[in-house]
Amino acid sequence: MVSPASNARFDILGIGNAIVDVLAPVEESFLSRHDMRKGSMALIDAETAERIYQAMPPGQETSGGSAANTCAVAAALGARVAYIGQVADDQLGGVFRHDIGAAGVHFPTRPLVGGAPTARCLILVSRDAQRTMNTYLGACVSLGEAEVDVDLVASAQVTYLEGYLFDPPAAQAAFRKAAAAAHAAGRRVALSLSDAFCVDRHRAAFRELVAGHIDILFANESEICSLYERNEFDQAAAMARQDVELAALTRSEQGSLVLRGAETVEVAAVATKVVDTTGAGDAYAAGFLAALTAGRGLAACGHLASIAAAEVISHYGARPQRDLSKELAALAT
Amino acid sequence: MVSPASNARFDILGIGNAIVDVLAPVEESFLSRHDMRKGSMALIDAETAERIYQAMPPGQETSGGSAANTCAVAAALGARVAYIGQVADDQLGGVFRHDIGAAGVHFPTRPLVGGAPTARCLILVSRDAQRTMNTYLGACVSLGEAEVDVDLVASAQVTYLEGYLFDPPAAQAAFRKAAAAAHAAGRRVALSLSDAFCVDRHRAAFRELVAGHIDILFANESEICSLYERNEFDQAAAMARQDVELAALTRSEQGSLVLRGAETVEVAAVATKVVDTTGAGDAYAAGFLAALTAGRGLAACGHLASIAAAEVISHYGARPQRDLSKELAALAT
After folding, report:
1. ipTM over cut 0.90
2. Contact B58 A92 (CB under 8 A)
3. Global model pTM greater than 0.90
4. Which among A276, B164, B181, B208 is least surrounded, fewest beta carbons within 10 Å?
């Protein structure tokens, strides 16, 4: 049973790691010198974060976090959005809280007092616009079941979970509690696989979750291939089609493929000058879910997803800088 | 007596308010609703900072501070640069310290422990690229004579002071100590008037300082007119010519005028797409001083100043994003 949208207070509830991004441009040699895998996300401890930060060029700080980015973009597109994530009671936590609130996202999670500091992600942008991320989880490690308000989950059409949330140990329980609460209320649960290496770290848990508890799956090529341990995208896509009600699989400049039952919709990418790919997948999910929860068809969902992704990769940082409020209404279908 | 450049450890020592900027785009109506004077800098208390921040759209944090921006740009141009300014022992202080260090600027000032937090400036950028600034001085109020290391001053060809430093009460003494130490070592002292309203607040002190202790003066039209209480730029410029050895007077897109004794050099602005004027004057001073301390002529100084200003106004934020390291060597004279 799926509850009607009309009784939902929110369209989307995101749950994720609440992170402040520090972006800086680097040469490729910086990445190899620091043993970083270009384009991926690595978890680092406080000491390594300090060492990398010391070596980095001057940075630009903006609020980030994968699901939080999705929430900010979805709100910019006009969706009603809430977010659960753990920041600390410190300056960067205040920056995160300000930005997500100012983006129009309801953010009720209380800050952590007396624990680890607010998480930060050191994002190195190379000249080809690829971003390489190094995340110090900090306060995010404290996110657990207690932070999941089941009434809030029940009030949202879609609860959206980021795969990165599988990294901090207590969050998997939060994840499962949220999925159960959503389904008990007749709502849907969406998951983004986030990163191929994140899938590697948690493959068994992801497979079980995707098959048993996820309605809508977002992944890029390498993530979906990693999840199903297939070299061929088509084979992995076919397996996703079996597992979930709806899968949106992104292929960078080749656009995306939306699968629902026997249905397949090919979506073109929206052309833009690519400056920084940080947040591309997050923005895609935002556009898709904003259109879906507004009752639009799959082609429209995919198109709005592509518009949002194109906006975010056209500048530094993962949150939109252009007014996106008219884009949903302007969709053809 | 002026010491030869050859025995200087640094080309430029900047002294200023150490500030982290929070930039966000706003409509003009935001400025009027909050009683702000477009294009100017206002001092605000912690409570007002909190109120404006609450009302602001999502922001982007970058290190700022007028003289600190000048130092970062001058270092990017290849000058040897040091900076004195007061941050707190907090997260934003760490961001400021990282960024100025990563820019290649020597920053020996110890952070303030147990006092006010690191200063921040809420910068509202309107669609016409004008920035309106609201500064909460925080830890900057603690900067005084004790922070001025006279050996460091003596080791720099030019000590560069920002006019904004007249706002925190203890800084005027630091200012005078630095000027005296520089002259005792046969070095030169430069001042930027910073802001017409800042000149209004401290006109008598500025007039006395400029006439008695400043060798190189930077000002824009409204600042120099405010200093000498003249409506006509030409009259104010003539008075500046009497007061200081060298004056560089900027006139936005009309370029700038460099005056030295009977000599007058007209400098054209460098054309660019203007996105955000934050830091334009700071970058101008950086280019000018980097060329001057490298022994270049006035026309070359003005041209490098214009190149640096054009780079900084072509994007969000006051620190350079393009590689400027070849610009000094590429100058004609």
Report:
1. yes
2. no
3. yes
4. B208
